[in-house]
Amino acid sequence: MPTVELRFSAQPEHVRTARLVAAAVARRAGVDEAVLDEVRLAVGEACSRAVGLHRSHDITAPVTVLLNEEEKAFSIEVGDQVPGPGSGSLPPGATGAGRVGEADAEADSEDDMGLAVISGLVDDMEVRSGADGEVIRMTWPTMSATTALS
Description:
The protein has about 150 residues and is α+β, with helices and mostly antiparallel strands. It contains 4 helices and 5 strands.
């Protein structure tokens, strides 16, 4: 069960709120202060990416952010509702309008760049994609984990 769950409409102005909440929950979970900027940046990039995907595919479903405090780690999952490649299905609220042709290639390049930025900020990142959308899971150690390693 997530420590905190956020759902917000795919509007760029909500990304800032997600970053602020993520940093506050990460701090409470025991993530090192020196890493909090990376948490904010990674969450901002993942949420901006999800917002962009929703808007370009005319999906009205909310972007989901799950913040999980675990024993020795803190994880954040950012999920969109854009079906993965080849799934052939659209989620409820999608009109089916989206990018085609060259726009697809450009959007894919931007998506790849966003994932590259996130992977540079996070040591442990996983991307899961399916018919119900994509989830980017990012994990950071907490102070209890780093002191156990010392």
